[in-house]
Amino acid sequence: MANRERFALQVNGQIHVVEAEPARRLLDVLRADLGLTSVREGCGIGVCGACTVLMGGRPVSSCLLLVSQVHGQPIVTVEGLGGNGALHPVQRAFVEHFAFQCAYCTPGFILTVVAWLEQTSGQDEESLWEYLSGNLCRCGSYRNILKAARAAARNREPPWV
Ligand code: FES
Ligand code: FES
Question: Mean pLDDT in the chain?
Answer without folding.
Answer: 94
